Amino acid sequence: MFRFQGLSAFFPAYNEEGNVEKMCSSLKAILPQVAEDYEIIIMNDGSKDRTKEIADRLAQEDNRIRAVHHEKNLGYGAAIRSGIKACRKEYLFFTDGDSQFDVSQLSQFVPLISNHDGVIGYRLNRRDPWVRRLNAWAWNRLVRLLFGLKMRDIDCAFKLFDRKVFEGMELESSGAMISTEMLVKIKDRGFRLRETGVLHSPRLTGRQTGANPRVILRAFKELFRFYMKFREAKK
């Protein structure tokens, strides 16, 4: 079976004091099974709770864990961008810091990456409030219309990539638009992506921010700004 020589795994965290340690423990359980060498990056996006304190403690206790901090909250997309830049290994995996995904499912992605440049999860049983599910359905339809990006679950936060797909790529989105921008640019460069299903669980601690009107408004502003630039570049 394919096995990584080096794998970076990171997760963005905003006010996730109840999840950070659990996420690191879960990653430490699965990563040695799929990689010879690995690192875990906690991407703290300006949390106001104890996330920073816990992340720094975990990094001090284990040299395979690093804590990267934004001094103030810059948004989900900014955290993903910083997380990608922090990765040092040949392959990278990222998920959200809310523990809604069982990261052991990463083992199902490993055989697929040997013939692809990225493996993208889609939620088999999305366990979010109906408002978020409705927003996601509408967003996916809109992105398909604008970019022809035929992904089942664009924003699913369970993604594995060969790090080469990001070489020379400038990601600009600061909000929830980041996954759309990332996948459009990766597909436009001709890289091979594979989709596979992952199980999803309800959030047990912490607060979701994805349905916040400000988050949604920022996503739409970034979407149409990106669409205009993308269309202009194709002329």
What topology emerges from the helices and strands here?
Layout: E1 4-13, H1 20-34, E2 35-45, H2 51-61, E3 65-70, H3 76-86, E4 91-95, H4 106-113, E5 118-123, H5 130-147, E6 158-162, H6 178-188, E7 193-198, H7 213-234
Parallel strand pairs: 1-2, 1-4, 2-3, 5-7
Antiparallel strand pairs: 4-6, 5-6
Shape: globular
Task: Report the CATH architecture.
Answer: Alpha-Beta Complex
Tell me the strand order in the biggest sheet.
Answer: 3-2-1-4-6-5-7
The SSE order reads: EHEHEHEHEHEHEH
Offer a few descriptive terms.
235 residues; alpha/beta; Spore Coat Polysaccharide Biosynthesis Protein SpsA, Chain A; seven-stranded mixed beta sheet
Description of the structure:
By secondary structure, this protein is an alpha/beta fold. Helix content is 41%, strand content 21%. The protein has helices at 20-34, 51-61, 76-86, 106-113, 130-147, 178-188, 213-234; strands spanning 4-13, 35-45, 65-70, 91-95, 118-123, 158-162, 193-198. It has a seven-stranded mixed β-sheet with strand order 3-2-1-4-6-5-7, with helices on both faces. The mean pLDDT is 90.
